[in-house]
Design goal:
This protein has about 400 residues and is an alpha+beta fold. About 40% of the residues lie in helices and about 20% in strands. Helix 2 runs antiparallel to helix 3 (about 80-95). The structure holds zinc ion. The site of zinc ion has 7 residues, from loops.
Length: about 400
């Protein structure tokens, strides 16, 4: 059996000077419109308790374009600006569903520079891609010089195109296409624990380490960041130092992405049920440790990849509630320990079983996920009961959240 899914194919490209200038202008306008709309929605709510939806912001955009000091918004394609309003709408939906923090303003220096084009704003012909506003008419525009590092599926036609530039100055284009996925059956079930020392630990006992060179890259990153902090503001040397930080960062991100791609593909191929913990809240806590920041980013990416691949292949991804005491339970007898400091890497339960901390946690996560699926799942936990330490069997349905809560 096969199934058709939407899939993004991302490539680097080399813009001409004119294209780079046009895209930079577009990125700036996208950021401006996003921030204006966020401001309008925030003010409407805090001052008048009014909710402003996507359609209302779209009407505002029309008005802004007629304002004297915002006429520059007319110089770029209107499609990415509309898409920015849609992205803001998604950010608010996630916020109201308690999946995300309140949307933040896009900063010129720190935010991702990107613009999304729907099909009315680009032309795709014989593998050549041209974007709106690059020239009039579009036929005259020079296609993007894309580095085809892997082929698009046969006959694929992009429905959405996203252009972006990373902090290291590299240009990317992502093409969203229909792709055919072979449906296969799998029998395994696995629980996954996220950690700092090891990236992930599986209930099978397997430990997934960070990508090769990650430790060395991380040291290089820390050094580059220290160097950047010493540079005078707005100096030439500071810009150089900033670029150095961005390059090391980009390398870490690329290697991690590659690593997680391979890993999630394997996990989804081998297992029908995959159980993970909901770490959303942990990732929201500001943490200044570099290792933690990187592991949090890896976890977010891991979960995203796992979610969409599980969806493609018809696998069950079960997300266990964040209050589940995965490291405090004995996976052999179910007894609960009151204290389990982070530095305890292995311990022996009263029942005599000696546990590796992370493997034990992963096994508990798996058992919890399976019990929830068996009970029909989807039961929201009673927060008050969760931390009481009743035997795991008695509170299994209260404690966990099943299914794929995102989207
Ligand atoms: Zn025990």
């Amino acid at each position: 059996m096969t199934r058709i899914v939407k899939r993004a194919f991302k490539y680097r490209f080399h813009p001409t000077d004119a294209q780079a200038a046009e895209l930079s202008r577009t990125f700036g306008c996208v950021r401006k419109v996003y921030n204006l709309a966020l401001q309008a929605r925030t003010e409407a709510w805090t001052l008048r308790q009014e909710r402003v939806n996507y359609n209302a912001t779209s009407a505002l955009l029309t008005r802004w374009k007629k304002t004297e000091d915002l006429t520059f918004l007319n110089d770029v394609s209107s499609v990415p600006l509309q898409q920015a309003l849609r992205h803001l709408q998604v950010a608010f939906t996630n916020f109201f569903a308690k999946r995300a923090k309140y949307p933040a303003f896009k900063s010129k220096k720190r935010s991702r520079r990107s613009a999304e084009y729907s099909s009315s704003a680009f032309r795709w012909r014989d593998g050549r891609l041209t974007l709106a506003k690059m020239a009039e008419p579009l036929d005259m525009a020079e296609p993007l010089d894309i580095v085809w590092s892997r082929p698009l599926p046969d006959g694929a036609t992009p429905s959405t195109v996203t252009v972006s530039q990373d902090a290291a100055g590299r240009w990317f284009v992502s093409l969203l296409c229909d792709d055919v996925i072979e449906q296969t059956q799998a029998t395994g079930a696995v629980g996954i624990d996220a950690g700092l020392e090891h990236l992930l630990t599986l209930s099978t006992g397997e430990k997934i380490t960070n990508p090769r060179h990650e430790r060395a890259d991380r040291e290089r990153l820390a050094k580059a960041q220290r160097n950047l902090a010493k540079k005078a503001k707005d100096s030439k040397n500071r810009e150089k130092a900033r670029l150095k930080v961005a390059r090391v960062h980009a390398r870490i991100t690329d290697r991690r992405h590659d690593h997680l791609h391979k890993l999630t593909t394997r996990l989804v191929r081998e297992n029908q049920t995959i159980v993970i913990e909901d770490l959303t809240v942990r990732t929201m806590v500001t943490n200044h440790s570099l290792a933690r920041a990187i592991s949090d980013a890896a976890w977010r990416q891991f979960r995203t990849l796992l979610e969409y691949k599980a969806g493609w292949h018809g696998r069950n991804l079960v997300v266990v509630d964040r209050w589940f005491p995965s490291s405090k339970l004995c996976s052999a007898c179910g007894a609960r320990t009151e204290r389990m400091p982070l530095n305890v890497r292995s311990w022996t339960c009263r029942c005599g079983t000696t546990h590796d901390r992370d493997v034990n946690a992963a096994r508990n996560i798996l058992a919890e996920g399976l019990s929830v699926t068996a009970c029909g799942g989807g039961v929201r936990p009673q927060r008050a009961n969760v931390r009481t330490g009743l035997s795991p069997a008695k509170q299994e349905t209260q404690r966990a959240t099943a299914g794929i809560p995102r989207r």
